[in-house]
Write a structure and sequence with these properties.
five-stranded mixed beta sheet; 7% strand; 12 helices; Lysozyme-like; alpha/beta
């Protein structure tokens, strides 16, 4: 995808408990992205900045507002030097977010709002909406088919966004996800920096072989996940689940082994964890046992992980 296709404007509202509490996301970086529309036809991104910067009588906010002219982050989303903060864009009492992602959306997700209606050019706003969601998926190694729920999906009894905003331009949520996925697959290969906004590109990477990703998950990650679940260690279990998702994404496959349009660069921390937690000990055990074949296999696997994360071989 084109990492710098559209500029991202960052103009943050004042910290206030009911709009911007100034708290970090529980997950550190965003775990998923909730697609909203503003439900306020004709109001652009700047209008919503002014509204939420002055709001005092209720709790509500979102991270990013997108119209036909700009992408405006009004609460830090983690796309620049400021770490991602919480926003109040999904009610805590709904349970769909916890069931699907293991977290409340306000604690773990970005709220991304599509501005529409009135004098807003839907097609231009939609292009920026698609690109921004793709940018976030690329930055944090997320498959858009799994990690972009609509607000309606999380709270169907109350909400109709972003389906209503999309409908105004003749689009559906299914088409939105397909367009985000297609944008990720556009050349050049994804080169969005992970946590280093001073560098507009990141080193090239080599996709992880699909059979190696499946083998690493089966041999190491899935047993660790099962052990954490059996010990009722929910945060650890969720971590291993995300690690498996990221390994598959680095190989360009989904959980069924079906090929995705494009592989995504592996997080360096994921590669390092796999190497130091499992592959390095396996190499030492093989060396001690005089099993040169097993040692060579562990070494080769470690190097494939390094290449998938854009790191040099060792």
């Amino acid at each position: 995808m084109q990492a710098n296709k559209y500029p991202i404007e960052r103009r943050y509202i004042a910290k206030r408990p009911n709009t911007r509490p100034g708290l970090r996301l529980t997950t550190g970086t965003p775990a998923f992205f909730v697609a909203h529309d503003t439900g306020n036809p004709g109001a652009d991104a700047d209008s919503h900045y002014r509204y939420f910067n002055a709001l005092t009588d209720r709790s509500a906010s979102a991270h990013t507002f997108i119209d036909d002219k700009k992408i405006l982050e009004i609460i830090p989303a983690g796309t620049d030097k400021d770490p991602a903060e919480k926003a109040w864009h999904v009610l805590y009492k709904v349970t769909s977010d916890n069931e699907h992602f293991g977290y409340n959306a306000n604690d773990a997700a970005l709220g991304v709002e599509l501005c529409y209606g009135g004098n807003i050019d839907f097609e231009e706003a939609y292009k920026r909406f698609v690109w921004y969601l793709a940018y976030c998926c690329a930055r944090w190694n997320k498959d858009p088919r799994l990690f972009i729920p609509s607000h309606k999906q999380l709270d169907p009894a109350r909400k109709i966004d972003c389906d209503n905003g999309l409908k105004s331009g003749g689009r559906t949520l299914k088409e939105l996800i397909a367009d985000v996925t297609a944008t990720l697959a556009e050349p050049p290969l994804i080169q969005v920096p992970h946590g280093d906004s001073s560098n507009p590109t990141s080193p090239a990477f080599t996709p992880l072989p699909a059979d190696l990703a499946q083998a690493l998950i089966g041999e190491y990650v899935r047993p660790a996940w099962a052990a954490a679940r059996a010990s009722h260690q929910q945060p650890e279990a969720e971590h291993f689940h995300r690690l498996a998702v990221n390994l598959r994404a680095a190989a360009g496959i989904d959980e069924r082994g079906v090929r995705l349009p494009q592989a995504v660069k592996l997080h360096k921390s994921n590669a390092q964890e796999m190497i130091f937690r499992w592959l390095s000990p396996a190499w030492y055990r093989a060396q001690a046992a005089g099993d040169t074949k097993a040692a060579a296999s562990a070494h080769a696997r470690a190097n494939r992980l390094r290449l998938a994360a854009g790191l040099p071989e060792q």
